Structures are given as structure tokens and as C-alpha cells.
Amino acid sequence: MTAGSQPAPAAHPPRRISVYVDGFNLYYGSLKGTPYKWLDPYALACALLPSDRVTAVHYFTARVKPTPRNGRTTPLWGERGHLSHLTVVYAVRRQEVAHDPRRPGAEAAT
Fold first, then answer.
1. Residue 20 belongs to domain spanning
2. Distance CA 20, CA 58 (A)
3. Which residues neighbour 104 within 8 Å (Cβ) at sequence distance 6 or greater?
4. In angstroms, how far is CA 50 from the centroid of its own chain?
5. Are 42 and 85 within 8 A, CB to CB?
6. Which ranges constitute the DSSP H helices of the chain?
7. Is residue 22 part of a domain?
8. Contacts of 14 (CB under 8 A, 6+ apart)
9. Which terminus of the chain, N or C, has less C-beta within 10 A?
């Protein structure tokens, strides 16, 4: 090792990695207002973790309702074809429950 050089990081065997993406925070925190709208989360994870094996990507989002302004009927990845290792998980809107007998003291929803 020469003066001023850093020791090489310890090598580790490749790890199996699952990636979880919050689509809302990804869009509003990084992509909105930029020209970057297409993203392959699997390719990004592989680039960020080159010594590991990315086995799955779980992308959590909500369904987009088409409006006259956005005109969208399919998700962005649907227009680009299949993205490898990608599982899309859509949010389910929670229904208000008038009374849940499993929760003592729960008040009726108004």
C-alpha cells in the first residue's frame, strides 16, 4: 500500500438482495419536474450493488386515474414492456369501518 492510498474494501460473497421501492416518494422526491420519467428499478439496483445479486424488485404504488390533464390509462412501465424482476404492488384504499368488534372502544365512523 502506498502513502495516501486507501485499503481495498473487504470482499464478501455476493448477497441476495430484494429491493423495495416507494413509488410516491420516488416520483415526488426525485422525478417530478425533471425530464427523467423512465426508470428501470432493477437496473438501478444492479448498478448500485455491483457485487451483489438483485433477486427481486417490489414497486409499491397507487393506480393512476386518467384525467383530461394526464390522459394516462396504463402505468409507465406498461408502455415500456416488461421490466425484469419487477413486482408491482398496488395500494388498496382502506374502507372506513363503522364498528370493528375486534377493537374494543372503537367509535363508529361518521
1. 16-65+72-90
2. 5
3. none
4. 19
5. yes
6. 23-26, 41-48, 76-80
7. yes
8. 51, 52, 53
9. C
